[in-house]
Amino acid sequence: MTRLGMPLQQTRHESTGTKVEYKIVEKVQNFKQTEASRPDFDHSGKPIEVTKSPNPNWQWGSGINDGGESLKAKHREIDPYANDRPMVNNYRLLVSGIAPRPVGFISTMSEGGKTKNLSPFSYFQVIDHDPPMFVVGFSGRPGRPKDTAHNLKLTGECTINVVSENMIEAVNASSIDAPYGVSEWDVAGLHESPSTTVKPSRVQESLFSIEGKVIDVKEFEDHARPGMSIASLVLVKATRFWVREDAVNEAGSHIDLDKLRPIGQLGGISYGRITSTFELPRPRWVDEVERSPLLAKLEADAKKST
What GO molecular function annotation could you give as one example from this UniProt entry (predicted)? Predict the structure, then answer.
């Protein structure tokens, strides 16, 4: 195994052949022409509407209020490892079905600090608050791993920057496969702000940024393929939060959604924005069992069976 996570037996020929089959990023034909026919983006900044929940009269045990249509629907079984199934079909299915997803906009530095990297990631999520923890997934790809994965493994430091509506074009621009030595910061036109506990810079334009240090890297060596880097999972523990002052409450415990305006990734090249929300309090059994005959019966039956 090399330090870049590539099998030693991999050859340049294998890597080149794999690239031909790798179709995660495809050229989109006539996109500007297609986009020109669509309505303009709404920049009015009108408050995000808060509506009722989809079914305010829902009762315990009532399931989905769709007239039984979901029970009539048939489901298709798909084997993600079928011999005749292209890997890219798993990618397309997952990103279109697991949505929306937050954009993990990650800043790293190379070992020694000679180069800086800034790139968005689709497989990203916060997974805990005590301690504050994040996970970033890196897919196998032709040739060497992405610079961000390589930097995280070697330096163990990064910043994670939340993406708002007004940033998305610049963020998307930073994903370009620029030649080695070309800075994504310059390509995107974004600005660096100093961090406190790590060396990589924060994105000044980001309303909410997190400094973090790597605590674990899991490489899926059992899924290694010739010509491809090894897929990996990186756990990052937050060391500092940075929030724009006009968007956070005094306690530092809540960010104003109307100011954050987060973007969500959908399938293909689609993104989503938040235009309305609804609220649902999380129920507590001790409160609800006294009001619900069904819950009371379930509790009584459970006690009888133990």
Answer: FMN binding
Are the C-beta atoms of residues 128 and 217 closer than 8 Å to each other?
Answer: no
pLDDT digit string (tens) for the chain, length 306 residues: 333 343 333 333 334 444 545 567 778 889 999 999 999 999 999 999 999 999 999 999 999 989 999 999 999 999 999 999 998 999 999 999 999 999 999 999 999 888 999 999 999 999 999 999 999 999 887 666 788 999 999 999 999 999 999 999 999 999 998 887 789 999 999 999 999 999 999 999 999 999 999 999 999 887 777 777 888 999 999 999 999 999 999 999 999 999 999 999 999 999 999 999 999 999 999 999 999 999 999 999 999 998
Enter the pTM of the model. Answer: 0.88
Q: What is the token pair recorded at 150?
A: 């390589």
Q: How far apart are CA 147 and CA 4, in angstroms?
A: 10
Q: Which domains does the chain possess?
A: 12-42+78-269 (2.30.110.10)
Give dist(CA 195, CA 205) in Å, integer. Answer: 14
Query: What is the 3 state secondary structure string of 187-230?
Result: HHCCCEECCCCCCCCEECCCCEEEEEEEEEEEECHHHCCCCECC
Q: How far is CA 57 from CA 18, 29, 54, 66, in A?
A: 54, 47, 9, 14
